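We include the pair:
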Amino acid sequence: MSDRKPAGQFIDAAIDLLRRVRDEEADAIEAAGTLLADTVQNGGRLFAFGAGHSSLAAQDAVYRAGGLALMNLLAVPGVVGVDVMPATLGSALERVGGLAGVVLGSSPLREGDALVVVSLSGRNALPVEMALNARALGVRVIGVTSVAYATETTSRHSSGTFLKDHCDIVLDSKIAVGDAELTLDTVPAPFAPASTVVTSALIQAVTATAATVLADRGIEPPLLRSGNVDGGPEWNERVLDEYRDRIFYRR
């Protein structure tokens, strides 16, 4: 580690990763944003899924100020962050084959929709089958993952494949295997993960692209405003009502 304090080193590492995805993933971000815009324009619905800490970036895209109102969370009980006790059960469920098919079978996903699947490693059965089965339904899939895992680890899915192998578009977060940016001689394990920062930024970059593409086509993007600004709640009620048949987080 350099002479800079660990906090500064971590922020520098995160900035370097953000610059890499900005420059190296620009075409993929543009393609993913256009895919979402096409889906919105064609009457489709938008969904996001992630397991474990990867679910944080998926949740960040749902029902938030400045985000697309049509983005719905595809939640799997027990694998959304640390919503289950013990927390290790969530990690175990990610490796269970067949679970994704059951979830999709009871979900509103249908042909013509778009699904963002977030998985840092992309090696477990749940995200692999989520993408694989969704595409079989006629759903377009955007994968957000670290491609490095596909070359430095082995798949935990029976097919031997990774999430990246079953997506229409792949966004590579560039996160190193192990998801820890710092090391120290006096600390026995690497620390300071940056995957949430980078993955959230990638998804918000895709959202920004989708909104711009829709606007360029003369279509008002279905965006939400902050409920803490004057007029925000009224704006949101209008948008939520207009798109109520494509929103599943509101009764």
User: Anything to note?
Assistant: The beta strands are 46-50, 71-73, 114-118, 140-145, 169-172, 182-184, 187-191.
